Amino acid sequence: MSVGLKKSVATVIRWIALGAFGAVLFGCASNSAPPAPVNAASESYNYLIGPGDTVNIVVWRNPELSMSVPVRPDGKIAAPLVEDMVAMGKDATTLARDIEKELGKYIRDPIVTVVVTQFVGPYSEQIRVVGEAGKPQTLPYKQKMTLLDVMIAVGGLTDFADGNGTTLLRTIEGDRQYSVRVADLIKRGDVSANVDMKPGDVLIIPRSWF
Which numeric CATH code is attached to 31-41+123-205? Predict the structure, then answer.
C-alpha cells in the first residue's frame, strides 16, 4: 500500500471515528433532559387574544356599533367609538369590559360581548415546532393540547428525524428543557409517550446521525 493511500485511509478512518464520537455525544446530550410531565394542562386556562385574531364585538341594542374586527399586528383593535384599544394579552371578557368603559363616554350603560372567531393567540403562547418535522410551523395553543395533537398538525417526522431525541423547551418555566419520545409515540403507537403541552412550548426535533 502506497504512502498516499495509507494517508487517505487513515483520514477516512479518523473522520468516521470523529463522526461516531459526535453522534454518541449528540445522542447523550439529546436524552440528558428529564422526561416531560405527562399531565401539565391547567384547568384554569383562559385564551388570550393575539395579533391576527378576529373578534366579534356585540353591543346590546346598538347594532350600529356591533361588528367583527381583526386584531392588528400591533395588538390593537379599532371599532366605532373605540380607537386603538389594546386587545393583545386580554381574554374576551376583559376586552368586553374595557370596550364598555370606552363606550360609556358616549352611550348609557353599554353591554358588550366579545367573541373570538379566529384564533392565533399572542406570540408568547404559541406552540413552535422546529427541526425535522414534516411541516415546521407555529400553532395556536388550545386547552388540553397534547404532543400527539401537535405532531399530527405538523405532519409527523421526516425520514431523517431523531424523534426520541426531541427536546421540549418550556418557556413559562424559564426555558426548562424536557425530553419527549416522539418516535415512540407516532411510529410505534406508544401512548405512554404522549404528554400535555403548555402555552409557549417549543419542540426541537434534531436530525438523526444514523
Answer: 3.10.560.10
> For 176, left (φ over 0), alpha (ψ -120 to 50), or beta?
beta
**Three-class SS of residue 32?**
coil
pLDDT in tens, 191-206: 999 999 999 999 999 9
What is the per-residue pLDDT across 5-54, written as a single tens digit (0 to 9) for each?
344 334 333 433 433 334 333 443 445 899 999 999 888 899 999 999 99
Contact of 131 with 161, CB cutoff 8 Å: yes
Q: Which CATH architecture has domain 54-118?
A: 2-Layer Sandwich (3.30)
CATH 3.10.560.10 positions along the chain are 31-41+123-205
**What pTM was estimated for this model as a whole?**
0.80
